[in-house]
Design brief:
- By secondary structure, this protein is of the alpha/beta class.
- The protein is about 30% helix and about 25% strand.
- The protein is built from 8 helices and 12 strands.
- The chain is globular and about 55 Å long.
- The protein binds adenosine-5'-triphosphate.
- Adenosine-5'-triphosphate binds near residues 14, 19, 43 and 44.
- InterPro entries: AAA+_ATPase, ABC_transporter-like_ATP-bd, ABC_transporter-like_CS, Metal_Ion_Import_ABC, P-loop_NTPase.
- Belongs to the ABC transporter superfamily.
- GO terms for molecular function: ATP binding; ATP hydrolysis activity.
- Keywords: ATP-binding, Nucleotide-binding, Transport.
């Protein structure tokens, strides 16, 4: 199967600081890749590279066979964001519409197609009940569903989610992750899912990319989430403890940010 994303021997430096180097990653349609790592390890920067907003120091990235570039129609993006608290007049359906026509209002697909597309995607993410409500009135979990709908409305082949579980309660985290999983299974959308919440993604992640101190590991959950692998990456003793279907990582230099 042709990969939707191919990262080949990629290195990213900011000045003299190396975020990661010689990164190779190929993602197939429908694959769910969790991107984990401490604060500042370069997860968002990786997404920025894929979005064409950050140049690699060396190496290449192709998306659907073409070099990464700004405004790619192949990518849906859920940026890292907290609650929408301002008194924005936007309704949920308006926010989703921005995923079709950006900030240019009023693009009409023929025959009311625009509205149908928006309604369909709102239905798919289970947000139809609050489609006409102002977004700032929605709960964190509801807002996140709407943001995902916005990222999916143009039917991208690759979905990039940056911390979509941030400040959600455990139940909403579970629901949002399941929603993304449903999409990739139904439509073959490939997913890169940046998160500090390990447990909600465990049931879904086909592979994990773990970034740490300029190093990285890619593999299945069982291959990467081991005491040996993480201890080696962080150059300190890290313990991975499995209890039932949950995993606990102890001893990380940045423990507050993983659960
Ligand atoms: N344009 C830039 N120029 C220089 N340094 C940058 C730039 N963008 C990010 N950085 C730095 O690079 C490091 C990695 O940032 P990045 O946002 O990619 O990390 P992250 O893994 O997503 O972190 P977090 O989990 O906190 O969101 C940080 O220390 C950040 O300050």
């Amino acid at each position: 199967m042709t990969p939707i994303l191919a990262i080949d021997d990629a290195t990213l430096n900011y000045g003299s600081r190396r975020l990661w180097s010689h990164l190779d990653l190929t993602v197939r349609p429908g694959e769910f890749v969790a991107v984990l790592g401490a604060n500042g390890s370069g997860k968002t920067s990786l997404l920025r590279v894929l979005l064409g907003r950050q140049r690699l120091t060396s190496g290449t990235v192709t998306i659907a066979g073409r070099p990464a570039h700004r405004g790619s129609k192949d990518i849906g993006y859920v940026p890292q964001q907290r609650r929408i608290d301002t008194l924005t007049p936007l309704r949920a359906r308006d926010l989703v519409g921005l995923g079709l026509d950006g900030h240019r209002w009023g693009l009409n697909l023929p025959g009311g197609g625009r509205r149908r597309r928006i309604d369909a995607v709102l239905g798919k993410v289970g947000a139809d009940a609050y489609a006409d409500r102002p977004v700032w009135l929605l709960s964190g979990g509801e807002q996140q569903r709407v943001r995902i709908a916005q990222a999916l409305v143009a039917e991208p082949a690759l979905l990039l989610c940056d911390e979509p579980l941030l400040s959600l309660d455990p139940r909403s985290q579970q629901e949002v992750t399941a929603l993304v999983d449903e999409r990739r299974r139904a439509e073959g959308t490939a997913v890169l899912f940046v998160t500090h919440e390990i447990n909600p993604v465990l049931p879904y992640a086909d592979r994990v990319l773990w970034l740490a101190d300029g190093r990285f590991r890619i593999g299945t959950v069982d291959e990467v989430l081991t005491s040996e692998v993480l201890s080696e990456m962080y150059r300190t003793q890290v313990d991975v403890i499995r209890t039932g279907d949950r995993v606990l990582v102890a001893g990380l230099p940045d423990p507050a940010h993983f659960s």
